[in-house]
């Protein structure tokens, strides 16, 4: 009994690591003075650079994709690049709390998509957990939503970024059934970065001339929220359903808002602070008592030898 429970705890721990990692993304973006399309482009290209030492190991799989897989990977990459462009852009117009709280709509969209395309079911505990977390997320942003001006545009960009990442997540769920995390992430990150590079070329945004501090932030974005966030979640897609993985976004406003309060001086009301614990409670119910989450978690002993957790990303 204890042996069966041990592997699921490992997945839950990795899940929490991923939530913490992605929460640093908004802080690094705020610290950077570069255009958001440049930040996102170098974030992804540097991630691929870190992954290069393992390319030889996966060389056969990297170049043996079917035409359908290539098409899905291309669209998934474009969706991810669009997500970064829109969401990072929203951080320049509205607060971290508002921008991240809108992203909490992602699990609802992913759950609907999973039901329509993959016939993935949910249970009562998952719905209750999602509801609690969503209500808490709204409370975090309640004191920060604006009805007009730049903040409203920022909210709209965050919403569109949420739609884009939901599409990316659903395509990733399908592709990860047949591809290793390394191959999927390598090509998706490369395509997303290249789509952003084309955007920068069309808009004559410079590729060079950035201070060493900016390059340091690009690298931090590549390592912390991308490798230990997006890469980790894409790896988990094979063993946990897409709705459960996308639930991680509900924990992000809590940690991001606290980080913004400490590091950026953004105010956080007592209501928002209390709502953070409400969100965490909802996430805990979702991953602890959601049978669909548990049902798709596999034991460490069942993992294929070519797919070690995290090792492929570091």
Automatic annotation (TrEMBL):
It is found in: Endomembrane system. It comes from the Bacteria. It is a multi-pass membrane protein. The keyword Acetylation does not apply. The chain crosses the membrane at residues 12-32, 38-58, 70-90, 96-118, 125-145, 151-170, 182-202, 214-233, 245-264, 270-287. Its main location: membrane. InterPro entries: AA-Vitamin_Transporters, EamA_dom, EmrE-like. Residues 13-140, 153-287 form the EamA domain. Keywords: Membrane, Transmembrane, Transmembrane helix. GO terms for cellular component: membrane. Belongs to the EamA transporter family. This is Multidrug transporter. It comes from Paenibacillus terrae.
């Amino acid at each position: 009994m204890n042996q069966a429970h041990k592997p699921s705890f490992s997945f839950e721990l990795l899940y929490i690591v991923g939530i913490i990692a992605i929460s640093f993304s908004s802080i690094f973006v705020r610290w950077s003075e570069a255009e958001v399309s440049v930040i996102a482009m170098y974030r992804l290209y540097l991630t691929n650079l870190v992954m290069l030492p393992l390319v030889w190991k996966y060389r056969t799989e990297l170049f043996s994709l079917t035409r359908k897989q290539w098409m899905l990977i291309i669209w998934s990459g474009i969706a991810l690049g669009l997500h970064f462009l829109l969401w990072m852009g929203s951080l320049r117009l509205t607060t971290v709390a508002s921008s991240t709280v809108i992203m909490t709509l992602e699990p609802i969209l992913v759950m609907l998509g999973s039901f329509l395309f993959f016939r993935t079911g949910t249970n009562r505990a998952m719905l209750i957990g999602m509801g609690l977390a969503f209500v808490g997320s709204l409370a975090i942003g309640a004191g920060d939503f604006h009805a007009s001006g730049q903040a409203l545009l920022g909210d709209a960009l965050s919403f569109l970024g949420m739609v884009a990442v939901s599409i990316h997540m659903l395509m990733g769920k399908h592709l990860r059934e047949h591809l290793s995390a390394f191959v999927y992430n390598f090509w998706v990150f490369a395509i997303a970065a290249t789509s952003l590079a084309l955007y920068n070329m069309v808009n004559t945004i410079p590729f060079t001339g950035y201070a060493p501090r900016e390059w340091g932030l690009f690298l931090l974005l590549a390592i912390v929220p991308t490798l230990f966030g997006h890469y980790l979640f894409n790896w988990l897609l094979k063993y946990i359903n897409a709705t459960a993985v996308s639930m991680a976004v509900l924990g992000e406003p809590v940690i991001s808002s606290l980080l913004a309060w400490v590091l950026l001086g953004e105010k956080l009301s007592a209501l928002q602070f209390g709502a953070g614990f409400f969100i965490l409670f909802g996430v805990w119910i979702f991953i602890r008592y959601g049978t669909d989450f548990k049902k798709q978690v596999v034991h460490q002993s069942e993992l294929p030898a070519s797919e070690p957790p995290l090792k492929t990303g570091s």
